[in-house]
Design a protein that fits this description.
30% helix; 24% strand; 8-stranded mixed β-sheet; alpha+beta; 592 residues; 18 helices
């Protein structure tokens, strides 16, 4: 027999009854039923019930074991009585009568329980992550992640993509976040950077003549943590293709991502009609560039109905260029109680409140009437025009926000989501996808300067000619994939022509010499025959988070950092030794 086990803790069934077996694993829990001891023995694969009575040679040894000890059990497989069968376990029809027990590793008193789903402080869970990972839900999440990556690889290979690895130590690159810098011992005063993404390398792979590339790529960004983002590193399915347009990338990506969702969340509906929404329309309709389309509410511009109206706040706002009033329809939300509740929500968001109108049966029974402070101020003709534009009726409501769209869009988007949830309008148990397209190439900074709004390597729509006009009117072949309110993919068709690249960077304030210095490798490569190419990257952590129905990305990462970008288990970041600093010609200056 094998030194440690003849079977795993998920293998045994009634076909093994009478067999002598050896199992090894962790003591999940011990139960004393008055002269009969039971152990739920757990390994990576499952759980098997062990029993020993006072006649068993293993009885006295089993009395000593505690939760999470690692033990080896020798014994004989028995069929359980029909009344004791556990249908929830693959091994639920049998148990193993123990004849011998060997302790392979004792466990000290546990700082947190492994058995059960007791909620524990995150600090404890991350400090003892190896224990946390033994818990059923987290163990299941990690296995799902592993299987998702395996399936992604297979699907990419099946579509004719080839997997290549790109460097981890490289040069700094403006990808929109802070770099992690690595000091060079051999070149004092100079630093490498951990790659924010393999962006430049995957483009160089296309220039080198490899047609379809992918990689399960680690990416490193020094970012502020959020529930759906790791503050230090993450993994993405990185993709690049030659001789393609935007639609070719979409056609290659959809079967992979949709297939993953259908494979790993079969109990939910995965919609196959991936709509395309212009970035500007997404902000206008949903208040977000990653809309949750499970919620059917679509916001609308109703400025015309408030211009010159009796509601002085909105009427005065609309006298200024660039201001708008937008409505959030709320089907079935037509009660003063609900409207007051949403008004309170807006105040929690830092707004004075939200104006509202709701439609109800007229008090004199003659039909329908509009109610609420706004309705009184703007009169029945305007409220009726608003109702007709929004397609609302009796028992419905609408909420209103005004000002510069960029100042209120995000709040309007959150209010839309809240209304959808509160009124039960948001579809459950499904995944809805949308490609967000036509991102602006440039934006104006708070200082009034022109800068890239997203990926600086995207091709401007209209090429060089577009760059000769107003930069703020230039759209890029840049796209994101949104699903259920999360951004899953970002990508673009690349700028592969040096003269267009130089002009784009010039508009963003980078002289040619700076472009040559920062991106010398790419500029050089593009001078020697670069194919049209494009691609994207899908966030693996975020995809698994959606599939596992988790709200926090740390629940699907094996060893995550905490909210302060600290590794509580390994003690990172840590202070370097003086000898290390001397080798690197560095000195730490105390923070004032």
């Amino acid at each position: 027999m094998h030194a440690y086990r003849s079977h795993t803790c998920a293998d045994l069934n009634t076909a093994h009854v009478g067999n002598e077996v050896r199992l090894s694993g962790w003591v999940h829990r011990v139960r004393d039923h008055g002269g009969v001891l039971f152990i739920d023995l757990r390994d990576h694969y499952g759980i098997t019930q062990i029993l020993a009575d006072s006649d068993s040679a293993a009885f006295k040894d089993i009395e000593k074991v505690r939760a999470e000890w690692v033990v080896q059990i020798d014994g004989r497989v028995k069929a359980r009585d029909a009344s004791l069968v556990n249908p929830k376990l693959p091994t639920g029809e049998i148990e193993v009568y123990a004849t011998a027990l060997t302790v392979l590793g004792e466990a000290a008193e546990l700082p947190m329980p492994v058995f059960g789903d007791v909620d524990y402080p995150e600090e404890t869970r991350l400090t003892y992550r190896f224990l946390d990972l033994r818990r059923e839900k987290l163990h299941r999440n990690m296995m799902m992640r592993s299987n998702v990556v395996r399936s992604m690889r297979k699907r990419m290979w099946d579509q004719g993509f080839n997997e290549f690895q790109t460097p981890i130590i490289t040069a700094s690159s403006p990808e929109g976040a802070r770099d992690f810098l690595v000091p060079s011992r051999l070149h004092p005063g100079k630093f490498y950077a951990l790659p924010q993404a393999p962006q430049q390398f995957k483009q160089l792979i296309m220039v080198a003549g490899f047609d379809r590339y992918f990689q399960i790529a680690p990416c490193f960004r020094d970012e502020d943590p959020r529930a759906d983002r790791s503050p230090t590193d993450f993994y993405q399915l990185d993709i690049e293709m030659s001789f393609v347009e935007q639609e070719d990338v979409f056609a290659a990506v959809q079967p992979v991502i949709q297939g993953i969702f259908e494979e790993f969340a079969p109990e939910k509906k995965t919609y196959s009609d991936w709509t395309k929404i212009a970035y500007r329309d997404s902000l206008k309709w949903y208040g977000s560039d990653k809309p949750d389309l499970r919620n059917p509410i679509k916001m609308q511009d109703v400025s015309a109905h408030f211009a010159g109206s009796g509601f002085a706040i909105f009427a005065k706002l609309l006298e200024q260029d660039g201001n708008e009033v937008r409505a959030i329809p709320a089907p079935t939300g037509g009660s003063r109680k609900f409207c007051d509740r949403m008004n309170a929500f807006a105040q929690k968001e830092g707004l004075p409140g939200m104006g509202y109108i709701f439609w109800r049966k007229a008090e004199d029974g003659s039909g329908m009437e509009a109610a609420g402070p706004l309705a009184k101020n703007i009169g029945p003709e305007r409220t009726e025009a608003i109702r007709l534009q929004l397609g609302l009726g009796e028992g419905d409501a609408a909420f209103f926000l005004g000002g510069k769209p960029e100042a209120f869009e995000a709040t309007a988007g959150r209010a839309r989501n809240e209304i959808g949830r509160e009124l039960g309008l948001t579809e459950q148990n499904c995944f809805k996808f949308a490609w967000i397209v036509d991102f602006p190439m440039f934006e104006k900074t708070d200082e009034g300067k022109i800068d890239f709004s997203h990926n600086p390597f995207s091709m401007p729509q209209g090429g060089m000619e577009a760059l000769m006009g107003d930069p703020l009117q230039v759209y890029a072949y840049q796209y994101d994939l949104a699903c259920n309110g999360y951004e899953l993919i970002s990508g673009g068709i690349r700028n592969h022509k040096p003269e267009i690249m130089f002009k784009a960077f010039e508009l963003a304030g980078y002289p040619n010499s700076e472009v040559e210095k920062r991106f010398g490798g790419m500029v050089k490569a593009f001078k020697y025959g670069a194919p049209p190419h494009g691609g994207c990257a899908a966030g693996i952590d975020r995809i698994v988070m959606l599939l596992a129905d988790e709200a926090n990305i740390r629940e699907v990462i094996m060893f995550p950092m905490n909210q302060r970008a600290e590794d509580l288990l390994m003690g990172a970041p840590s202070e370097p030794m003086n000898a290390q600093l001397r080798e690197l010609n560095l000195r730490v200056v105390p923070k004032e």
